[in-house]
């Protein structure tokens, strides 16, 4: 076991983050992107997109038996969203912490939902809940050729 190798062996993950239509309409796109950018994760995909109903239904298929499902689909397709793919070790769980609890009134101050939203049905942002779903969702929302692999200039100042 070689402790100095642990950092380089950390599993690089990808997560799908989306500014929902309320976040776009309320002018929060820059603020939300900024939280992930400043943290030090790597942006590998970004676009403004009007989501069709079938994609919204596929994205949220695990929730399709919930009573709020029809309103959720209506919400997500009600205007353009900003689709993002972010990469980094531990990015999936860390992004969920930056986003905060599903119910913005329960979300801690300092989190995106805690600072910028008041209701579950208008909680401004989505983040994948597992590395598997991160991959699945990036595959749903981005086409091949829309993701960029690049080396940020700050990489050596973020990780030892
Ligand atoms: N949602 C809702 N009512 C609920 C629960 C969820 O409108 O009672 C919406 C809300 O926009 C939430 C999304 O459905 O963000 C997905 O729900 P999930 O439990 O996956 O929450 P998340 O992972 O977004 O925190
Ligand atoms: Mg979820």
From TrEMBL:
<keyword id="KW-0418">Kinase</keyword>
<protein>
    <submittedName>
        <fullName>Nucleoside diphosphate kinase II</fullName>
    </submittedName>
</protein>
<keyword id="KW-0808">Transferase</keyword>
């Amino acid at each position: 076991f070689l402790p100095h190798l642990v950092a380089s062996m950390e599993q690089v993950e990808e997560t799908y983050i989306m500014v929902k239509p309320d976040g776009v309409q309320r002018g929060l796109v820059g603020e939300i992107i900024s939280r992930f950018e400043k943290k030090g994760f790597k942006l590998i995909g970004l676009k403004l997109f009007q989501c069709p109903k079938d994609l919204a239904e596929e994205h949220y298929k695990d929730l399709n038996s919930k009573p709020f499902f029809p309103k959720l689909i209506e919400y997500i397709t009600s205007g353009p969203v900003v689709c993002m793919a972010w990469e980094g070790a531990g990015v999936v769980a860390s992004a969920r912490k930056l986003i905060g609890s599903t119910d913005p009134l329960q979300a801690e101050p300092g989190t995106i939902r805690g600072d910028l939203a008041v209701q579950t049905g208008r909680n401004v942002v989505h983040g994948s809940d597992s590395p598997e779903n991160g991959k699945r969702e990036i595959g749903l929302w981005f086409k091949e050729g829309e993701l960029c692999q690049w080396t940020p200039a700050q990489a050596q100042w973020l990780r030892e």
